[in-house]
């Protein structure tokens, strides 16, 4: 009978010295993590950026939460890929592109004519995000 070995990634943390700043980062980390979970349920809200922001906040405030997130069953690999190589899986790039395109098209369809400028602004920001994403290395 073979036993499954567990590998735990050891995080590189850069904890702040001030307790006030650390607590602020802990709270922001949980806020971003909850927003990321909401993003799983709502197709127009992103998940990955919020999870990565949570990881960044916890790296500066809580070894325990950061360690938990980077070894998480679902999010851990993405956070480790980002922290080690600033890499994003190709399918995630395409999924983000498709979701941003759908959301932007919906804005053009749903906004009144005098608010079209807002849809164009969102389209411009989304285009910038897409260019940025595809310039990043692909995670394996």
The helix/strand order is: HHHHEHHE
Overall shape: it is globular
> What is the count of helical runs?
6
Helix content: 55-70%
Radius of gyration: 18 Å
- Can you list the strand order of the major beta sheet? 1-2
Q: How many β-strand runs?
A: 2
Please give the alpha-carbon distance between the first and last residues: 30 Å
Unreliable stretches, pLDDT < 50, 5 or more residues?
none
Structural class: mainly alpha
Main β-sheet: number of strands, strand sense, barrel status?
A: 2 strands, parallel
Number of domains: 2
Mean pLDDT: 87
Report strand %.
under 5%
Transmembrane segments: 21-44, 91-111, 117-134
Membrane topology: Multi-pass membrane protein
Main location: membrane
Subcellular location: Cell inner membrane
Question: What is the fold's blueprint, element by element?
Answer:
Layout: H1 19-41, H2 48-59, H3 63-70, H4 76-85, E1 88-89, H5 90-110, H6 116-135, E2 138-139
Parallel strand pairs: 1-2
Question: How would you briefly describe this protein structure?
Answer:
With 140 residues, this protein is mostly helical. It has helices at 19-41, 48-59, 63-70, 76-85, 90-110, 116-135; strands at 88-89, 138-139.
How would you portray this structure in words?
- With about 140 residues, the chain is mainly α.
- The chain folds into two domains: about 1-85, no CATH class; about 90-140.
- Helices cover about 65% and strands about 5% of the residues.
- The chain has helices spanning about 20-40, 50-60, 65-70, 75-85, 90-110, 115-135, and strands at about 90, 140.
- A two-stranded parallel sheet has the order 1-2.
- α1 packs antiparallel against α2 and α5 (about 90-110) packs antiparallel against α6.
- It starts with 18 loop residues before the first helix and ends with a strand.
- The mean pLDDT is about 85.
- It is found in: Cell inner membrane.
- Its main location: membrane.
- It is a multi-pass membrane protein.
- Keywords: Cell inner membrane, Cell membrane, Membrane, Transmembrane, Transmembrane helix.
